[in-house]
Amino acid sequence: MSRLAAMLVHYPVLDRGGARITTAITNLDVHDIARSAFTYGLSAYYIVHPIAAQRELVERVRKHWVEGAGGLRIPDRVPPLSLVRVVASIEQALADFDSEQLPELWTTSARAESNSLPLAEARRMLRAPARSRIIAFGTGWGLAPEVHARADAKLAPLTSPREDGFNHLSVRAAAAILFDRLLGEQ
After folding, report:
1. How far, in Å, are 14, 21, 27, 142 from residue 82 at the CA level?
2. Spatial contact of 180 and 172, defined as CB atoms under 8 Å apart
């Protein structure tokens, strides 16, 4: 199996009108995606934010649970939050995860496209030894087009069984479901 990491991108992402924005850190995203990543055996969880004060906030939260009183009070939080890596850019996350060979970048979106990598195929690819991979999730209304353009693959979206096609999950819910579909027992 290839090494796998998750990346939560706060810039460049889109707002509902399609403009590029930077979103704020959400404490629930830090905790919940770390817990899901650890549960499914990911090697790291990167949080990408260009603003130093936001990165410092995540680092304080991480230290509280890994080195501080939070970890002493609830030891089950230490291993998942130990996966958290805070970086300023997507490039930093890619270089940090595999310094010898840049990992493949797989992006996610709620929008279907004809060239999307089907989840069953992605699951099969993850089972075979290969280059390391990072799955990027976007905050706001999703990753900016230039992130998808540089990706090695864009994963097919999670689909809703609803007749009206409603498909607007929180990023932490989408990450957990995607990890299960790619790595869970089937």
Report:
1. 29, 28, 15, 26
2. no
